[in-house]
UniProtKB/TrEMBL annotation:
Residues 1-22 are annotated as: Disordered. SUPFAM superfamilies: P-loop containing nucleoside triphosphate hydrolases. GO terms for molecular function: helicase activity. Residues 7-19 have a biased composition (Low complexity). The gene is dbpA. Residues 19-47 form the DEAD-box RNA helicase Q domain. CDD domains: DEADc, RRM_EcDbpA_like, SF2_C_DEAD. Keywords: ATP-binding, Helicase, Hydrolase, Nucleotide-binding. This is ATP-dependent RNA helicase DbpA. It comes from Candidatus Litorirhabdus singularis. A motif (Q motif) lies at residues 19-47. InterPro entries: DbpA/CsdA_RNA-bd_dom, DEAD/DEAH_box_helicase_dom, DEAD/DEAH_RhlB, DEAD_box_RNA_helicase, Helicase_ATP-bd, Helicase_C-like, Nucleotide-bd_a/b_plait_sf, P-loop_NTPase. Residues 251-396 form the Helicase C-terminal domain.
Length: 474
């Protein structure tokens, strides 16, 4: 081996070692847990954020959704916990219930190396009574949204005198949603010697101001938004504002899009586009901030379980939506913030799979395309709507229908219990059962459309874990 090759090999080994979780001062049991969970090498945000955070420093970090930021704050938070102290030692504030639920689930996974670590989710849209009951038995970590956290602080059902780590996740969205005063009130109830980890996908001036108010000499960590991966095919189409709805329908036919998230900038546009797609025969649902939390949860679950094909959403509502295998993303509106474009289309083409990112924009949005091109550092070419071809095709109904069961983890229910209830006496083949998701107070199971009615009757008439539960079709 030549000297140059040796130097190159040594450099690669050093880089690999630096990105290895074993290079961090983590408990050996946690390292084994990380390996079991498939955490093999640190992502860029983890490489930069974990060493100072584990050393106890405050952190001001810029990183996008899907960058691995949850582990970047969860590992330091967990490392500072005293399992024998059931007071709240870690608090994570999130802008939406969907994100809070997702974060809590990941913290539970990362905490598996220790016994009896209790993680409680406090969000609106759920009864406050069961939450108060959970807090009465203590919670090491609380994950919640600002409004509901304030409710518990005012009722004194949540107290934070022993808090060690405070995390603000997606702080930019919290400020956009008007939570600045609520966050300030919550922080005022925490000890001044806490560690504060602030994560934001974008870095506007008000994030700098928030950090200066809440943190002590924070370390700034920035992972630049990356160029969309080469696995994503991008196509942009220009048209008049009046044509956008028709062009969207033509794009769905031309590209034979099986499943997609359609992004709009406003709630009114989400409602309009959803109605037009539904009128055209598509299995579609809307997701926006004016919806009741229960309805938002059910829409997300239907999309995850492939019982609807299209989801029309605003950016804020889609935070917390994490689909590993999303074939396509469609921008019905160009986002106002250029970084959001990269975040949106980065939801497809993950894990080396091919993805498709389609964008419809009107003449009046042309200036935003120029700004986006400048931000990406490359020209963005757009195509003519006249290039779209493709004969009319029959719109296929989704393969699955989702059934909702009025029982969940609170009832000691597990996915295997639901699968057994369907494949036992009912004789439904296991291959006809899709994803099963068990939440705290409810559970959802996807069943092939042709057998959905049979499955519904079986679950209604039969028992799960020896008990009867209400079941309905979504």
């Amino acid at each position: 081996m030549s000297k140059q090759e040796q130097e190159s090999s040594t450099s690669e080994q050093s880089t690999a070692k630096a990105s290895d979780f074993a290079s961090l001062p983590l408990d050996p049991e946690q390292l084994r847990n990380l390996a079991d969970l498939g955490y093999l090498h640190m992502t860029p945000i983890q490489t930069q954020a974990l060493p100072p955070a584990l050393a106890g420093k405050d952190l001001l970090a810029q990183a996008a959704t899907g960058s691995g930021k949850t582990a970047a704050f969860a590992l330091p938070l967990l490392s500072r916990l005293n399992p024998r102290d059931f007071s709240t030692q870690g608090l994570v504030i999130c802008p939406t219930r969907e994100l809070a639920t997702q974060v809590a689930a990941e913290i539970r996974r990362l905490a598996r190396y220790r016994q009896n670590i209790k993680v409680v989710v406090l969000c609106g849209g759920q009864g406050i009574g069961p939450q108060i009951g959970s807090l009465q038995h203590g919670a090491h970590v609380v994950v919640g949204t600002p409004g509901r956290l304030l409710d518990h602080l005012r009722k004194e059902t949540l107290t934070l005198p022993r808090l060690r780590t405070l995390v603000l996740d997606e702080a930019d969205r919290m400020l956009e949603m008007g939570f600045a005063e609520d966050v300030a009130t919550i922080v005022a109830a925490t000890p001044t010697d806490r560690q504060t980890l602030l994560f934001s996908a974008t870095y506007p001036d008000n994030i700098q101001q928030l950090g200066s108010q809440l943190q002590r000499d924070p370390q700034r960590v920035t992972v630049q938004s990356e160029e969309p991966p080469s696995t994503i095919d991008e196509a942009l189409y220009i048209c008049s504002p009046a044509q956008k709805s028709e062009v969207l329908l033509r794009l769905l036919r031309h590209y034979a899009v099986p499943t997609a998230v359609v992004f709009c900038n406003t709630k009114d546009t989400v409602r309009q586009v959803t109605a037009e797609l539904r009128s055209a025969g598509h299995a579609v649902e809307a997701l926006h901030g004016d919806m009741e939390q229960r309805d938002r949860d059910q829409v997300l679950m239907q999309f995850r379980q492939q019982s609807i094909r299209l989801l029309v959403a605003t950016d804020v509502a889609a935070r917390g939506l994490d689909i590993d295998d999303l074939p396509a993303v469609i921008n019905y509106d160009l986002p106002r913030n250029t970084e959001v474009y990269v975040h949106r289309i980065g939801r497809t083409g993950r894990a080396g799979k091919k993805g498709l990112a389609l964008t419809v924009f009107s003449d009046r949005e042309r200036f935003q395309l120029d700004r986006l091109s400048e931000y990406l550092g490359r020209p963005l070419e757009f195509s003519s709507v006249a290039d779209l071809s493709g004969a009319e095709q029959a719109i296929q109904a989704p393969d699955y229908i989702t059934l909702c069961i009025a029982g969940g983890r609170r009832d000691k229910m597990r996915p295997g219990d639901i699968l057994g209830a369907l494949t036992g006496e009912a004789g439904i083949p296991g291959t006809a059962v899709g994803k099963i998701d068990v939440l705290t107070m409810s559970a959802y199971v996807a069943v092939e459309r042709r057998l959905a009615d049979t499955a519904l009757q079986q679950l209604r008439n039969g028992r799960i874990k020896g008990r009867k539960f209400k079941v309905r079709k979504l």
